[in-house]
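Predict the 3D structure for this chain.
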Amino acid sequence: MISNLAVAIMNGIVWGLIMALIALGLNMIFGLLHIINMAHGALYMLGAVVAWYVIELTGNFWIGLMVAPLCVGFIGLIIERGLIRTIEDKPIITIICTFGVMLAVQQLVLMIFGGSPRRISPPIAYRFPLFDLQYPAMRIMIALISIALMIGLWIFLRKTKYGLWMRAVVQDREMAVGLGIPVNKVYMWTFVLGSALAAFSGVLAAPIVSVEFMMGREVLIMAFIIVIVGGMGNLEGSVIAAIMISLIQGVGALFVPPSIATVFALAFMIIVLLIRPQGLFGE
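Done. Predicted structure below.
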């Protein structure tokens, strides 16, 4: 029982860090652009699918990890320039349009990739002992990569010019325009960065889950729960909420079926909203 609990906690932390990446991208787009991006789960799926093709071509997981976010980030650029920019001040229409983008991406992937789930073999096959069980070292590597990406994002937001501009636009858009900050470019690169983070999480999740055209559906729902619990626009809150909710699901699945463990996460969200409607760390 102790070994199973230890594995559940480890899996919860690893999956929580993966979910934190997609939730960070979703929260960044909402916090700056005030857009509820329903296509975010499709971008997560697209990252995994592009990585699968790259790995099939090159035989190297790490090349897929680098190429997929670049490709999906470029697709995010097209979505922002061609669609979001024209309707950014119409919240309901943005929800409907990004939902349409999600359906279009899913059907396109279904046509090209097919409906059969595919697997990506972990590039690190080593397992280390965890009590009386063997735990995959690849999952530890995934957790470390996720943490490194979050640290990189923190440095970008705190130490670079574009990061300063992004924080300034969040604080006061009108003042930022008055100070000469290129707000439209900030919006564009925020959407691109959020899309790339979704792709990163998709690639990192691919050795754990099956790669298929509907894999972003449940992840999108969970990402919204994480953003709501952590607090809209609060990036640190998203990371903490992602790990907490994943641990609730992982440990809960030891005692009840996984579907019931998901209900625990929903119940946790409801309790948080009853106590703090703005989320645990929202203002």
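The two ends are 40 Å apart (CA to CA).
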